Request: fold
Amino acid sequence: MSNNSVPARPYIIVLGNEKGGSGKSTTAIHIIVALLRDGYKVGAMDLDARQGTLAGTLVSRQHFVASKGIELPLPEFRSVFRSDLELRLEAEAEERQRFDTAIAELAAEGAEIVVVDCPGADTHLSRYGHSHADTLITPINDSFVDFSMLAKVEPDNHDIIKPSIYSEMVWEARKLRFMRDKGKFDWIVMRNRLAASEARNKRDVGETLENLAKRIGFRTQKGFGERVIFRELYLQGLTLMDVREANIGIAMGLSHIAARNEVRALISAIKLPPRRLGLVA
Reply:
């Protein structure tokens, strides 16, 4: 790419919902590392910079690499902070400028894909991030407690009453994306922390989710099981894709292989662009 050319727009994967504790940042770091290992040049953005969950994980990863002398793939990274301006319109304009600048900088550094981790709250910055998605991934815990983030349902028969505020926000983000560049985005709702047993609640959540998917336009994807290994690795900024190289004394058992397969299945579900040829680092 010549210095005078405008960098190509990266493909943007947004991790979003309005509820914490669903494994959003864990999903983000696994997507980032898996894509890096697939040969993509990846950028990462944390829009919840005050809490900095993804940012902290990537700092831990950098520290592990530096302290252990082990080479692991690292993304280019930007934190985007909310504005402190008092006037709402000025604050929102500043946040949009910060987001656009971060995307432009990552594009200039050659990022083919940018993974954006949004805050678990309804903020202007989160809405703006959603409106730039090519793929939106919404992890939810496999229960009707988290299902309420997507829609309100009848407690007795689980009939869908109406979409939730978050689903309506996604619809508005889709309209903004189309108005901006005629683009569309693919929405994946990821059922996280799946129980191994075939419980009735698990079946009911799955059936109700599929009914809602047809109504408001998303795809469902099985996510990550409830496994201790995810939490153990996360503290060091590591993923299941790093276990062999990181040399941290974890033997890859059947459950670890199954967990890594869950990550690969998610990556396969994303409609990724082809890798660019001739990129210069």
Q: What stands out?
A: The first strand starts at residue 11 and ends at 15.
